[in-house]
Amino acid sequence: MVVRQPIVCVMGHVDHGKTSILDRIRQTAVAKREAGAITQHIGASEVPADVIESVCGKMLKAFKVDLKIPGLLFVDTPGHEAFTNLRRRGGAVADMAVLVVDVTQGFQPQTIEAIEILREYKTPFLVAANKLDLINGWKDRKTRCFTESLQQQNEMATNLLDEKIYQLVGRLSEYGFSSERFDRISDFTKEVPIIPVSAKTGEGLSELLVLLAGVSQRYLEKQLNIEVSGPGKASILEVKDEKGLGKTVDIVLYDGTMRKNDVIVFGTLNGAGSTKVRGLLKPKPLEEMRDPREKFMYVDEVHAASGLKIYAPGLDGALAGSSLFVVGKGSDLKELEKEVESEIKGILVESSGPGIILKADTLGSIEGASKLLEDDGVPIKRASIGRVGKRDVIDANNARQQNRYYGAILAFNTEADEEAISEAAKYHIPIFREDVIYTLLDNYKKWVELQRDMEKNQAYDKMVLPGKIQILPGCCFRVSKPVIVGVEVVEGRVKPGYTLVDEDGKVMGEIKTIQKDKEPVKEASKGDQLAISIDTPLTFGRQICEKHVMYSQVPKDHHKLLTTKYAEFLSPEELELLKKIRKVMGDTAFA
What we know:
This protein has 17 helices and 33 strands. By secondary structure, it is of the alpha+beta class.
């Protein structure tokens, strides 16, 4: 048994400095070369123990950390799918995480997203409060040590920093985490440490590395002890084409050993796939898998934990987020294939019941989105990987026939084919496309609320609402065929087409028209005085007279809906009026 390096996932909102912090540690410029200075892919880089010792110096002694780990393996992430891709059966591969937050901006959508993921996977993490250099009055003291720099700052800057730190403490408490600035913590198992850092000046990087190393050694000892000689276990981060190599996979090897010519098993859309490793490429220490300044090293053997690239024939169908296993001595190929297939089937949903259509770019994305939808009580008809196609639109349209709220497609980190877009427009099926999973779900929920409002409004237009009117004295304009009288709406609302009944439940006729100032009115409500024409065989002065009180006749099925599903449409007074109308009409009408 040996101690492997901890796998550290770096998470946070876009442009808060995730890659820049790693760049400062690596002394590279990956962030500057990224498209739009935003991380587009998942990357991994190793920081060896000797580099940690060089960067941290006396901070190791201050925190009484005796380095036993061989280093730290950092995984830089563009968002939710990276962390969920970095997974294994029963949980996440990441041992720890660094949540990067711009100390001047605080929590943003992807910050919250990251916290939810960390809470779900119960992954220990610390907060890197980045952009310390932007605190008003803060001066660069040319040190990587925050503690040293803090002692040389003016009172205004330190107070302002404290204010920003405690804003983060407050936000973290909203999600159930107790936290504090790292130098004020006595028990790191009970509080999340917040480390002020600056990717620009390097301040705080000593404390960041020391705490990652120290906390992982002290509290994750069992996880870090591995059997090096065992067959390798990995998680596929990314599948890509490399010039001269063809299709390759970037992986994180979290257990065991992988060698050139090993047979590996991995997930594809059609089940388990297998092939023989033709070559292993490993970035040099402090290099980054996505964008190494120097070429990868060709190696014959790699031990966990490590980020590496595999090239081999038959990787075309490999799924990002899938587990990848080495078929070692004594391993059963069929059993490993069953395990991989079981994993995929547990994530890629195909249900006979009603539900929405979910599309995403990776298994991890599907898994993360499915979990959130499940938590919100939203069933999934089908969850699959790839672009939105015509079949997805057809399935969504069929789902809408069962439930109008399921007639939608959620596409996370993936696009839609032109044919699918055209078909969706034809059937009025919305396709929600986002690269932030919580934004995707929020947009869907807003659409559902809009659909519900539309449904209510449509039902409201067709519903007979409770209404009570009284004929005004001296306001008969026609005595019969039709009776036209002036009335006041005493309670509720009335519309043309409503049947009127009197206090004894006797049918008095149907409202044909309502007019106010000789203009037609679609609805009259409490307090309105206007003229109505009543289609009735009755005659004013005989069966109908001044001060006569009449009610709208609310059908039994409308009464039930108005007291249950659409009760929010009615005021308390109108609900009381509804009870009165039921009494007037008699219980037999509702039997």
